[in-house]
Amino acid sequence: MKEYHNLFSVFNGFMRIKTECRFCVIDKYNISKLTLKQIEYLKKFDEHEYVTISQLAEDLNLSKPSITEMVKKFIQLDCVKKEQCDHDARVYYLFLTEKGKGIARLEQIADEDFIRRVENCLSEEDISLLIELLSKVF
């Protein structure tokens, strides 16, 4: 029973550090002004190098006016930038800013921060052993 409690405690510590890393990213990019749905939309943006409002409306299965309003908010929050097409002045391309990319990749960035924290605390031998032990679970 003692081993169970030790394992539980270590696992909780691991998860606490991972959560701290996630909150650091959330604070860095000031995500509090966005809803979970809007974050999901930014992730959809991130699937494209650039995208038009029409393409985004189709991808998200939303109306163009809805996408236009969403894009206005993202531009105000410095998550998205809009540039006119060189070949067709009627077309505007939407790009994620660095902030937008950070928000869209929140989980990946938090995971990378977590891994760096683990690497900074353990020797190469310890890391190899941790990988070996955790590989048995997966």
The Cα radius of gyration reads 20 Å
Shape: elongated
CATH superfamily of the largest domain: Winged helix-like DNA-binding domain superfamily/Winged helix DNA-binding domain
Provide the helix percentage.
55-70%
- Largest sheet, strands/sense/barrel: 2 strands, antiparallel
Low-confidence stretches: none
Side-by-side strand order of the widest sheet: 1-2
CATH architecture of the largest domain: Orthogonal Bundle
Strand content: 5-15%
- Strand-pairing-aware structural class: mainly alpha
CATH topology of the largest domain: Arc Repressor Mutant, subunit A
Description:
Strand 1 (80-84) and strand 2 form a beta hairpin. 69% of the residues lie in helices and 7% in strands. The chain has helices at residues 2-28, 36-45, 53-60, 64-76, 98-104, 106-121, 124-137; strands at 80-84, 92-96.
Topology of this structure?
Layout: H1 2-28, H2 36-45, H3 53-60, H4 64-76, E1 80-84, E2 92-96, H5 98-104, H6 106-121, H7 124-137
Antiparallel strand pairs: 1-2
Helix pairs in contact: 1-6, 2-5, 3-4
